[in-house]
Amino acid sequence: VQVFPDGPDLFVVAANSGLPRPPGWYFNLLAEPRVVGELDGRRLELRAVLLSETEAADRWQRVLATAPDYERYPRRTGRIPAIFRLVPESASPRSSGRARAHRGGGRAPEE
Fold first, then answer.
1. Which residues pair with 23 in a beta bridge?
2. Are 83 and 43 contacting, i.e. CB atoms less than 8 angstroms apart?
């Protein structure tokens, strides 16, 4: 899963290589938004927040600025893929989490 950092937040795109259905981790994050990730050797407790269509459209332009090859996904599916903001748990009223891009008992996310 490619991560797009922006300040303390991280963003992930549920592109699933342009297939019509989102990747399995998309459904995992909807069911349990608390995750533990690892980035650059650091353990991060995060909470996944699904962006609204408007927020995703705005964020999509930033994703394309970093990863222009993602442009092919909307051509394949007819829509912008779902995007999650991964917010540090310390910035959230909730705490605890899971996953290095995977959740305990779940599958590792696919791209």
1. none
2. no
